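Support reply, case 0932

Customer input (verbatim):
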Amino acid sequence: SARGLHAFRLHSKLVHLRPTRIERGAGFFQLCYLKKEKGKEEVKRENMAEEGEAPETVNPSWEGERDDMNLPVGEGLATYPNGDTYQGTMKAGLREGSGTYTFANGNASYVGGYKENKKSGKGKFTYPDGATYEGDWEGDLRHGQGTYTYVNGDYYEGEWKDGKKNGSGVYSCKSKGIFLRGEFADGVYTKGELRFVDGTVYNGSFNGMQPKAGEEGTFAFPNGFKVSGKFLAKPAEAAEEEEGEEAKAPELYWT
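Our regenerated output:
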């Protein structure tokens, strides 16, 4: 019964269950780190800065055939002034078709499709820090279905749009043994389930890694007990007074 279930332990933290409410600060849900994703144009600029693929205005040295305009065409090896290389097909001097782009630092590479010098179709990108994305691309951005695997073993598998998580997907936190399954919008988790390592599941609306205040949700526990209700946000003024500093996220109360 509700009165018989006093608490459950999760990663050495207690969440207290009472007949009419569950009380816990926002930190309870912040078990995986999902950084805020950037806008489409910012993602494009970031890609150019971090991934550094040579733009179409840069002419590479070319080992292969050339067209009537003396531009690289067909299969060959392009070497760019910065030391990057591209082994694959080109058309009118642009990367077109499929190939392998290897960055001069040796820590990043892309293997897959291109259209007019931009990553397009299926491809796998290995980032400088060791993270990888494998899936669909469009206009140099992650777009369609794909899997992004982080250096720590966490991964997101699902839908992408304009370089950000959008649509249905699963985010797995390897280090915590928990995962989210549901809907993402502009890189933010908005609706679905959050499953914990002990089998407890919270299902409802989210604002990132925190349940959305005022929205109906349900806890389902391994012993079969379920409780539905809403999280309400604690007034910011009260939270600041108790914490002694500005709260980074509102404290939520279960009703």
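We compared this against your earlier run and they match. Two observations from our side: The helical segments are 40-51, 236-243. Residues 35-149 form one domain. Please reopen the case if you see a mismatch on your end.
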